[in-house]
Amino acid sequence: MSLWVDKHRPRSLDQLHYHHALSARLKALAASGDFPHMLFYGPSGAGKKTRIAGTLLELFGKGVEKLKIDQRVFLTPTKRKLDVNIVQSNFHIEITPSEVGNYDRVVIQEILKEIAQTQQVDLSAKQKFKLVVIHEADSLTRDAQAALRRTMEKYMTNMRLILCANSTSKLIAPIRSRCLLMRVAAPSEEEMRAVLDYVGKREGFAIPDDTARLIAQDANGNVRKALLVLEALKMQNTDLSSSALSIAKPDWETYCHKVADMIIQEQSPARVMEVRAKLYELLSHCIPPSVVIKTIAEKVVDQVDDALKADIMHWAAIYEARMRVGNKKIFHLEAWVVKVMSLYKHFFLGFDMDAGFDDF
Amino acid sequence: MSFFQPQATKAAQKQSAIDPQHQPWVEKYRPKTIDDVSAQEHTVAVLRKTLTSSNLPHMLFYGPPGTGKTSTILALARQLFGPDNFRSRVLELNASDERGISIVREKIKNFARQTPRAQAVASDGKTYPCPPYKIIILDEADSMTQDAQAALRRIMELYARITRFCLVCNYVTRIIEPLASRCSKFRFKPLDPSATSARLAQIAAAENVPLSPGTAAALVATSHGDLRRAITYLQSAARLATSVAPPAPITPRDVQEIAGVVPDDVVVGFAGALGIEPLGTGGGDGMDVDVDAGGKATGFDGVRKKAKAIIREGYSASQIIAQLHDYVVAHPTLTARQKARCAMVFAEADKALCDGADEELWILEVGLRAHKAIASDS
After folding, report:
1. Mean pLDDT of A262-276
2. At what angle do helices B213-223 and B193-207 cross, to 10 degrees?
3. B177 vs chain A: nearest CA distance in angstroms?
4. Chain A residues with beta carbon closer than 8 angstroms to that of B305
5. CB contact under 8 A, A167 and B316
6. Dihedrals φ, ψ of A17, to 5°?
7. How confident is the prediction for chain A on average, in pLDDT?
8. Which residues of B310-327 are buried (b: 16+ CB within 10 A; e: fewer)?
9. What range does the domain containing B361 cover?
10. A2: which of A6, A195, B68, B181 fits an S-S bond (Cβ 3.0–4.6 Å)?
11. What is the pLDDT of residues B221-240, one digit of tens each?
12. What fold characterizes domain A19-183?
């Protein structure tokens, strides 16, 4: 028995619930036989992968659903071995090169060349080319992206690429200019409720209006999250009446909120140490530090005076950027916490906040 | 001449083994001779001399993407050697090939060392100058490591008699000085709008794509002098337009969507939340219009709401910032000081995004700081 998210995932472009114009466009492209490289981008849970799968089905027919998982070994120039998982069918191949971190260039070069040099052997195939789907394309290193540039042009006859990314900001311009960009926006609240209603109907129950609204608001455009929440709620109480209902936040989120409360309550070195222990706890549970800083900042901002809000977000942005460049995440998290505490205290003691952040 | 014609058509057939219908137009319409290269008159004039004099210096081509650097050198090599000698005389390496120091020491050195083979008889009946040297094209040379570049230095001098190098790069500053000084430099400038639209019109005519002046203008505006990008967009737009049942004409809106450009109303809406009044509210009395009176929430919550909406719609942060920048800089009622402060915010945000910072935080940050800058002395 699978999760509802997977069970009711639309299999073809026709079954999709929203962005019909986009679906029609994809369908037309797949039918035209002249298929470009594509770049799907949009927030997570908006349905990028579902659309890619739908497009593949449209292009190659049922054959793409017969997947096999392969583990391949690559050798870096320094003779280190890399294991990469590859999902493939007869017609396409899916890779997540960012799994191997800095060595993603090797994977890209090897796999793409290998695929590009062999033609489609299956004579019954609908298309002459093979497709390579690259997930998390925005976390490819610069080197790997540079390696893609010329390959995309050179091997156009045998191969097409579909890139899937959260944002185009981290992709270099030459790649963007070689792809047809497909923006997959998050669904609006009504569209989300339509999806929820559909799943409810398929499972044989009706969702009260209030509950549906609550779930849609909580998910903030992320359909995957909404469906997971819906399933969890259904498990907890079967009638889904909204009076007794509350959406359980994930543990890390409540934990982050606790940290935010601690920062507001007291500003002292001792409190910094306590916060630090909590931050370590969060990091050791593999919560990405940028998510941590964002969640805490949002929560802190809700509780402070208007005059402080802009500054707190400003420093959150600054320290988050430094965190990416730097090496040790906890330093920057702590620095931000201390900064916020000092801002807060200064504000209440009525000191003039002149140091450094007012004079850009 | 009639004697040669059958052979010529055979050669042409062999080339079209790749289905031309599925070929990207960028490749299909790559200039065949250097005279076809758009809008780089100076470089072309210099190179045309080499065709007659059969003397060629080492060369360094630099300039922004899509200005015809690779096309020029490939066309030149083809004109010098002809299709038959091309393979044995030209080595093309780019960033998708392994190009560490070991490759420089082995592959490049080996190729550079070979004495050029005797000229094969051209099968298509034309005569080519076929000068007695080989050409090594190092495409995207700015992504070569410093060490690999250093290893090239001596090789370039040692085999200068029989081998010419052509380095192609975007950023000339990434090429180490000793290499740069061994080459004669050619700067490729971004294409001006008229050259771009002329070329686009030519391709559109060849592909039977109706191209309205508005669409051409949109293509030129979104491509910023990058001809490859303009052609790719044109092809994508043509694909979309012809794939629906009655082929629809290409609209400027299609081009913008393909280019990933954020619609103007989103940018104006975001700018409105920052306290920048829309351009349309009347020139002279625009100052009197109170933005808050329009019912829009400004201040922290307003900006935050807008930023969240932008992220939800999936627009890219760098694109938003670039367009917001254009909007602010061209805005008639903002003071120079306000504009300067905003520009500083945009610059910092761009750097942060380049480093891979979180998009939502930085859109919010740009919004808040620009809001502050605009509120500070208006």
Report:
1. 90
2. 120
3. 23
4. none
5. yes
6. -95, -20
7. 83
8. bbbbbbbbbbbbbbbbeb
9. 264-376
10. A6
11. 888 888 888 888 888 888 77
12. Rossmann fold (3.40.50)
